[in-house]
Amino acid sequence: MFFHTPCNHPHHSYPHPPLPYFRTSHFSGGNKLFAEKQSNQTYYYVGKALTFRPGRSFYETNTNGVYKIEAVLYFRSPYRYYHEARTDNSYGGSYRHRSTPRGPGTTRFSLNGFWSDVSRKLCMVGSASWQVEDGRTVNLDAVLKLNYGSDHHHNHNNHTIYNSVISGSLESVSSVNDETYFDPILIFSFPDVSNYNYSLVSHVDGFYGGSKDGFLGLEPHSFCRLLYGRATFLEMEYAIDGLLPRFVYLYPIQCSEDEKKLRYVVKFQNMSYGYDDFSIDSTFVGEASWDDDHNQLNVVACRILNPINRLGDAVGACTMRLSLRYTAIWTIRDDAKIVGQIWNIDDLKKINLTSYDGGSVIDFPGLRYEYTELDKAKRSCLVKKNVKKGEIYPDGHSYDMKFDMSVKNSKGEQFAWGYASPLFVGNELYEMNNRLIEADSVGTVSDTGFAVISEPERSAVPLNISYKISINPFPHAKFGNSLSTLNLSRNIQGQIEINAEGVYRSETGHLCMVGCRKLHNSTDCEILVNFDFSPLNEKRGSFSLTKGTIRSTRTKKDPLFFDNLSLSSAAFSTYVAKQSIWRMDLEIAMVLISNTLSCVFIALQIFHVKRNPKTLSCISLVMLVILSLGHMIPLVLNFEALFLRNRSKQALMLNTGGWIEANEVTIRVVTMVAFLLQIRLLQLVWTSKMSEGNENGSWIGEKKATFISFPLYILGGLVALLLNLMRKYSLWGGLLSYSGLVLDGFLVPQILLNIFRGSADKALSHTFYIGTSAIRVVPHAYDQYRAHNYPTFHVNGTYYYADHNADFYSTAWDVVIPLGVIALAVIVFLQQRRGGRWIVPQRFRELQLYEKVPTVNNE
């Protein structure tokens, strides 16, 4: 214990804890607590996280300012795994495999200890359950020591960089060789505190600004808006590459608008994106101030110290300096967003800093792009496409102008993925966070149910535009001699980056640009880039296929020449997105209507048999079992969607204006009601047949119908499986589609029962069998309507109604199945008017009459 006061017996409970909850990712060590990533599962990295949560009650002790408290400490694994889950998103049993993220493992320590409000120190002991390799569960015993610096609850003026840090450690109390031992965990948190005193940058010297020409300044009251809450990645330009880190990561943790000052976490790492695990040796904490005289951000950074050695001293020497400036003019050859320097005051050798990362683009007032290759682009770009009336292409400022793409060589072999995004459109910075536009801004809504794109004003004047194109070769891609020079342009992440500028003609969707790629000590601008966008109002397929080329204009003998690159992108346009969103809402409504009508039709059938109880024995049990399974299977496979789904998954994606996930739960509730009604009808029929026995031949007819139905279903299932194997389709998908076909023919067992019984009783109400048949027919009619009026998805993950996984859907099936369902309904209708054997040949009907002739007893 580090308290210098005795820990006496506690008394008096208080409702609010004296120390705050905190959460941080700034900790290191204890690797044993974080399960290693599993090589056989797909995962993504979410980062480590630690959460300290004090209990609601604490107890005052006999020592003034010392309290007994309880708390829990959580450690979250950095890996989130995917697992396959079956879900139902359409009527009739559409089950599809969907990868859903599974929550990472968490280690939980339950702790008890004492807190000193005077020294601002905490000491606690506790344990966590842990499973060892052989499956046994053991306890990890540990001691937690934390120093909270100054009091964050009161408005004191002594909050500085030295005492505004929560630091400490969690250490195992077991011996090093014990299986419950784990490495010490060093913990840091940098909370936002009130009345923070930026003492480091208030009177610091050593920053040389120079002229502010060519660099961006700040407008009043814009400092925190532009710089706070935004991570900055900077590349360090060493004269000689070595084992030193290549990037500096700055993340602001607090901002003062009045003083134009910031608190930063400064981290050195070898990644230009994302965030490496925390390390005490590569992480600094610092302050920054804006210099209006030189348009420069000055940063002072301090080392953080190991809290095990001396708890309470979290911040060490503040000898690191950074100066950053934001360039005012970008060009195709020089697109550095941020330039600066970093140095240590003990070693005045300065290292240049540069940021080319598009994610760090800040919309400073006065930022502009200078086009230097437009004349060359206009000379090289010939207008090839004719303007076609009625075709609408993306606007130069729209979301559709940026896209992912596949990259192929001259042989048609794909060797890389790429990404293209505008930097400037005309003289305006392209909106990096462009969102899907609202329907009102698109236009009116047509009779087909989706927004009508109004044709924009055509401009004969080409639109100036600049682009950033990144190409990411596959890990083992072979460039060959024809593409080997592209390796000269690969950055530290292995990407090939091309800056381009040129002209875009919105009336034809043609984009032509001159490109430049950086070499080691020069720039190659003998590159021509072309893209052709598809019309937004094109209905052939859901994706507007954008095609393009990148080619070198050098001669083949030139050492910098490379073969043509072919580019293609299945760009999901905002127009198609609006159509799809409207269609999804429509399909959810149709599913709800279908399931609701199912409930109504079943209820009417129950009412019908209540009024005519003698008809119960004339209803096929096999038919009712098939219909019950049609409602039950979706509920069984998606039970977690109804009761166990997280609230976060019920929020809407894609800005639909509806609540897709919540509506899915509503659909399942209605489906459950239909299932329960169907079970009630099944129970009534079963009870009636059991009570009658074989008096009216009901069981004999039922058995005969069953003996014929089951072999038919089995034979049909084998044929479906054989076809799927021949076509190399999913076995599960084939079974699901065939189950939908069985549901389409739900009247087959009833027709067979009617034939064997020869009955003309109206066992089924017209609303039941005609309405249920209509519910099976409408999805096929809608499938054809959707194919002709909506974009066709190559992956039907968003089909909530008439899902191709739930039944057989195609142009042929959409004709054959409805005709078959209608034919079955007509047969039942005629059977209930003319007799069950009306459908069989005349001689079998005569046999029926013969069997009904009563025998004469001579006695």
Describe the structure.
Strands 1, 2, 3, 5, 6, 9, 10, 11, 12 and 13 form a 10-stranded antiparallel sheet that branches. An 8-stranded antiparallel beta barrel has the order 14-15-16-17-18-19-21-22. α5 (574-611) runs antiparallel to α12, α9 (698-726) runs antiparallel to α10 and α9 runs antiparallel to α11. Helices cover 26% and strands 28% of the residues. It has 4 domains: 11-189; 223-360, Lipocalin, CATH 2.40.128; 371-572, Lipocalin, CATH 2.40.128; 577-852, no CATH class. The protein has 14 helices and 32 strands. It is an enzyme of class 2 (transferase).
Short description:
The chain is α+β, with helices and mostly antiparallel strands.
Describe the protein's topology.
Layout: E1 11-14, E2 22-24, E3 26-28, E4 43-45, E5 49-60, E6 66-76, E7 79-88, E8 95-102, E9 106-116, E10 121-131, E11 137-147, E12 166-172, E13 185-189, H1 223-227, E14 232-237, E15 247-256, E16 261-269, E17 283-291, E18 296-303, E19 320-326, E20 329-330, E21 338-344, E22 347-355, E23 368-369, H2 374-380, E24 403-408, E25 414-425, E26 428-429, H3 439-442, E27 463-473, H4 480-483, E28 496-505, E29 510-518, E30 523-532, E31 544-552, E32 565-571, H5 574-611, H6 621-637, H7 639-643, H8 660-692, H9 698-726, H10 731-744, H11 748-757, H12 766-789, H13 813-834, H14 842-852
Parallel strand pairs: 20-23
Antiparallel strand pairs: 1-5, 2-5, 3-13, 4-7, 5-6, 6-9, 7-8, 9-10, 10-11, 11-12, 12-13, 14-15, 14-22, 15-16, 16-17, 17-18, 18-19, 19-21, 21-22, 24-25, 24-32, 25-26, 25-27, 27-28, 28-29, 29-30, 30-31, 31-32
Helix pairs in contact: 5-8, 5-12, 6-8, 9-10, 9-11, 11-13, 12-13
